[in-house]
Amino acid sequence: MKRFFTLLELLLVIGIIALLSAMLLPALSLARSKAISIKCLGNEKQIGLALGMYIDQYNHTPTVKYTGLEIRYVDLLQEFIDQKSSPVFNCPADPTGGPISEADSVHISYGVNTYKSASLDNSFWYCLPISLVRRPSECIWLADSKETPSGTSSLSLCGSYTADPDSGYSKYVSWRHNEVKRQFNALFVDGHGSIMSLSQTPYRFWDIDGKWNGE
Q: Of 171, 172, 201, 200, whose CA–CA distance to 188 is shortest?
């Protein structure tokens, strides 16, 4: 004789499935976010390889942008990293798509740390001789960036030369990997990448004046 499930048994099974789904979905979502963050970090490490080859050849870092010219760090690194439209310059978690400028429709997800102390005449905005960077492993060169108010890709992370992170050295850093923890991926001058949070990132990693002046 065939035995059929009762309505109560079916509801119980459905309830168990729903409960298991509710328990697993956050873990799956977290794992997916982690995988995307790792993919983004891999992009930055590839950029770091190109940066290292650029520095080896020219003995200075690439400028963020030549004044008055449509030539930026992504253009200068093309010699070592295929082309600036390469997926390596786009973070898979980046929800924006703004162009570099009106004349350049390519979108870039990463900006350069251009902060400097008031006492410093130079920064990574310019072609900086690598000999001036005394601790490359503690010096952020690139990180996740967000769009500017005008909707263009921000190739500079700095808003102003102040120690306030919201308006100064990290104004255009994107926290897309974890908004609550203000988490971002960063590439250091020596080519290594790391998942960082703003609160746990030493100020000296941004203010590289001390590296240059031996303070």
A: 201
Report the alpha-carbon distance of residue 41 to residue 98 in Å, rounded.
Answer: 21
Question: Following CA atoms 96, 196, 37, 157 in sequence, which dihedral angle do they give, to the nearest 10 degrees?
Answer: 20
pLDDT tens across 11-25, in order? 787 888 888 777 766
DSSP the chain: ---PPPHHHHHHHHHHHHHHHHHHHHHHHHHHHHHHHHHHHHHHHHHHHHHHHHHHHHSBPPPSB-TTSS-BHHHHGGGTSS-TTSGGGS-TT------SBTTB-----EEE-----TT-S--TTS--BGGG-S-GGG-EEEEEB-B-TTSSB--B--SSSSS-TTTSTTTTB--TTBTTTTEEEEEETTS-EEEEEGGGS-GGGT-THHHHHT-
pTM for the model stands at 0.82
Which pLDDT score is estimated for 212?
41
Mean pLDDT of the chain: 86
What whole-number percentage of the chain has pLDDT above 70?
87
